[in-house]
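Lecture notes, part 5. Sequence design as translation. It can be helpful to think of inverse folding as translation between two languages: the language of shapes and the language of residues. The source text, in structure tokens, appears below.
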């Protein structure tokens, strides 16, 4: 099954490099995507995130493993072990999403990247919950959480010091696309700005801001091959298909 993939990414002002990135692997009608948001703490957190994206995609496409929640978690653990000595003090939030022949998607996540889909009112229904200090004890709506200062303190992430098991979610698929967004998108943009960003229109913004990104994945009904496009994708996306490997 071919897919249409869009990656919209705008660099923020808080770090000299864009620390949001995405890795996309395509093989035998299935897709694996990993979206990462490197922490602003740690001078090499952006490089840490990009290296994770490359390694996970290469493993998926070149190694051709059986994809299960367990195999995905084990590969994250192996990748963490391989990089922990080179990236001391660095960390990243992430969502790892796999869509194969089954009618549901596998999602592993840690940190404050979210998975969602369009709702009937034209907004976004978020299907996962971020791991932050603000909602560690009691859940709260994403719209409220976005304004909490303590949401920046994460209770889970991919940290160089130790591996933290990700949360597993299974999402039933329908005709709507899936979104994977970093907190610069869901927490710093209002509804109208999010709608514009989904179309690749970033607008002028002189405020201090985080990197902001969203990945949009949908099954293609008109194409025979997967198409990957978007705005500013060339600086923050790594894609590999089985035909390239």
């Amino acid at each position: 099954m071919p897919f249409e993939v869009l990656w919209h990414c705008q660099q923020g002002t808080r770090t000299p490099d864009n620390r949001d990135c995405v890795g996309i692997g395509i093989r035998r009608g299935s897709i694996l995507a990993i979206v990462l948001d490197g922490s602003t703490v740690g001078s090499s957190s952006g490089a840490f995130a990009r290296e994770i994206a490359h390694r996970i995609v290469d493993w998926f496409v070149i190694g051709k493993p059986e994809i299960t929640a367990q195999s995905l978690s084990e590969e994250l653990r192996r990748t963490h072990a391989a990089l922990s000595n080179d990236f001391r003090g660095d960390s990243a939030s992430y969502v790892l999403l796999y869509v194969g022949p089954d009618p549901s998607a596998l999602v592993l996540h840690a940190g404050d990247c979210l998975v969602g889909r369009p709702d009937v009112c034209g907004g976004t229904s978020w299907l996962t919950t971020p791991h932050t200090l603000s909602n560690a004890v009691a859940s709260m709506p994403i719209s409220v959480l976005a304004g909490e200062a303590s949401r920046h303190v994460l209770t889970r992430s991919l940290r160089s010091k130790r591996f933290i098991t990700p949360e597993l979610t299974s999402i039933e698929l329908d005709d709507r696309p899936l979104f994977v967004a970093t907190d610069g998108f869901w927490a710093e943009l209002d509804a109208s700005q999010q709608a514009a960003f989904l179309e690749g229109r970033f607008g002028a913004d002189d405020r201090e801001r985080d990197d902001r990104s969203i990945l949009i994945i949908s099954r293609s009904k008109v194409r025979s091959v997967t198409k990957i496009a978007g705005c500013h994708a060339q600086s923050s996306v790594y894609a590999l298909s089985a035909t390239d490997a």
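The translated text above is only one of many valid answers, since several sequences can fold into similar shapes. DSSP finds five helices and 13 strands in the chain.
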